Structure formats: C-alpha cells, structure tokens
Amino acid sequence: MDLRDAIRTIPDYPKPGILFRDITTLLGDARAFRRSVDQLVAPWAGGKIDKIAGIEARGFILGGAVAHQLSSGFVPIRKKGKLPHTTVRIAYSLEYGLDEMEMHEDAVAAGERVILVDDLIATGGTATAAVQLLRQMGAEVVAACFVIDLPDLGGADKLRALGVDVRTLVAFEGH
Length: 175
Hints:
Elements: E1 8-11, E2 19-22, H1 24-28, H2 30-41, E3 51-55, H3 58-70, E4 73-79, E5 87-94, E6 97-104, E7 113-121, H4 125-136, E8 140-149, H5 155-161, E9 165-171
Parallel strand pairs: 3-4, 3-7, 7-8, 8-9
Antiparallel strand pairs: 1-2, 4-6, 5-6
C-alpha cells in the first residue's frame, strides 16, 4: 500500500496555486491510518519515550495514536488561549505575520524524552517553534515525525539543523 494513494490533494486551497495535502482521507482509511502510525512508531518501539507532543489539530490525532502505541504520555501544543491551565508560550513567524503556540507549564519535565508529531512539514515554522518551546521546558526532543514532507519548502532541513532527527513517510515534490 502506497500511503500517497490515501492522501487527497485539493488544488487552489486555501489560495490559488496551493496544492493542499489532506490527510482526512488517510485517517478515514483504517489500513492506511494503522500503517502510518506503525511506521511513525517503528524506530522507537521498545525504547523509552516519555511524551509525544502533538501540534494542533491533526497532530493530536496522529500523536495520540503514537503515544498509545509507545505507552507514552501525550502533550497538546495549541494556539494561544486554548489551554485552561497556566501555560508557557512562544511566538513564531507565519507567511502573513506572527502567531503564538503554547502548552501547559507542567506538561513536560526537564530531561523527559519527547517526540514531536504533526501531519505535515512544510516551511518548518510551526515545528521549529514547537521544538524550541519543548526545549525551553527542558525536554530532550528525540525526533519530529510527520506523515507528509514538502521538501522543496525546507522545513525538515531546518529541524535537522537544530539537531532534531526527522522522520517522514511520504514526500510531495513541487507545489
């Protein structure tokens, strides 16, 4: 099974010229979803991973499944203002300005081994900020895992430059 076949491409979304890679079709296909999670988990099966950090929102779905498979805790990383307890936050750049993400201040302890999970790595702005946030709290970011890589946009290389092991399952070249 080629996981690409389970990913829908939507042209001109959210704006003209963009090919949006939609994993909702992969999530709806039991075999593809299971295979994706199994492949994301494989390098760390049997190892000690304390937490899986998932980036809102598709990273919650994938990260929850990965955390379950690895018997790890799960940490949601959300947009500013969405978490109910005391948080730590970081600002990061988007194409059109700045945004902020946050997590609970007690979500990770210093020295905990954490894997970051999201559906897609593009420019790497959000994932880089998440790595910085986790490290700010003393976590050891063991890896960052994504179903999809858009290598032309360079996000995975930015994470590697930070010393983060990056695992992706499929790549889509070009825009």
